[in-house]
Write a structure and sequence with these properties.
Blueprint (H helix, E strand, L loop, with lengths): L1 E7 L7 H18 L3 E7 L8 H9 L4 E3 L5 H7 L2 E4 L3 H10 L10 E4 L1 H11 L5 H4 L4 E4 L4 H10 L9 H8 L2 H7 L11
Parallel strand pairs: 1-2, 1-4, 2-3, 4-5, 5-6
Helix pairs in contact: 1-7, 3-4
Length: 192
Amino acid sequence: QSLITFVAQTDLMQGHNEGFEKFLRGVQEIWRTNKNLKLLVRGHPGAPNAGIDCYHKALETGIDCLWNIDTPIVEVLAASDVLVSCSSSALTDYVWLSSTGTKLNAKPIFLVGNALKKWLLATQKTWSQEIVEQGLGIYCFENDDITTLLINAISGTTKNLPEDKDRLKSQLVNKHTVLKALEIDSVEIVGN
């Protein structure tokens, strides 16, 4: 069974809810012909309850859906076959996990509609995500076909990471900081 995880943000992020609704329509399209998937809705690590409204919307569709805020985010990401978000540091965490030998299937998908672009420009001075710009993730713009992106992600055809993924990863994530945060002295990295 495939697990698609959506990491939600707060309603304060303009364009977030529209992005989620587009994502949900894509999952519904797949669900019509493939009941062998689960949708997990999870709040952003900094706002764990943020996605409860998204979860309730997903439940209304009849999709096999889970809500989880208790499991550590790294474990959730490691269990996820596909990760989708409008904006979250979980996207970078997922890339780090997928490029260190885990069996994750796909690059994360960053939903970015026009309203979210404007909001990110106004609040963060940029709407782009470094991991996507470096080829480690995928944009899904307002007019893009989310259903096809999700199908490709589930099947693993989006996993082809760039040849220099290790160099790119080291620019994005300080391994020592991550290990310290997890209170781990060292970790054995298993090659792909």
